[in-house]
Amino acid sequence: MCVYNVYKVYIHYNNRRGIGMQIIISNRSKEPIYEQITNQMKSAILSGELQEGEAIPSMRQLAKDLQISVITTKRAYEELEKAGFIYSIVGKGSFVAEQNLEVIREKKLKVIEEQMISVITNSKEIGLSLDELQQLMKILYEE
Predict the structure, then answer these.
(1) Which of 1, 23, 39, 101 has its CA 20 to 30 A from that of 75?
(2) 85 CB contacts (<8 Å, ≥6 apart)?
(3) How far apart are CA 85 and CA 99, in angstroms?
(4) Interval 50-98: pLDDT, tens
């Protein structure tokens, strides 16, 4: 039995800057689709790829382009709005919210901590020592 990994890619171009935001959905990911969208949009906002006040695709348009349910994109947008990354105006659409630099730093630190917990867990599972992990981290950091 062959199992294929299917990716769906959506690219949103900002007319003012001509820059595209890419969303990649994988059917093989353990992450639900709404979380894949949420995490990629958060990343685009935190990196400056999407800027304050910039319009993002409508829920319906994104669902159509990714060939997924509007319910899924609605959930992703609700999560983004709850977390303060976007805001919506009835009849106008959804936009990137203003980001406080200190809040952004804290959010990024939280993401780093979560990723490091995963790295530490994986390291312990294969018997990697703290010194070996630190050496690996130093090599990767200096690249």
Answers:
(1) 101
(2) 41, 42, 45, 96, 97, 99
(3) 7
(4) 888 999 999 999 999 889 999 999 999 999 999 889 999 999 999 999 8
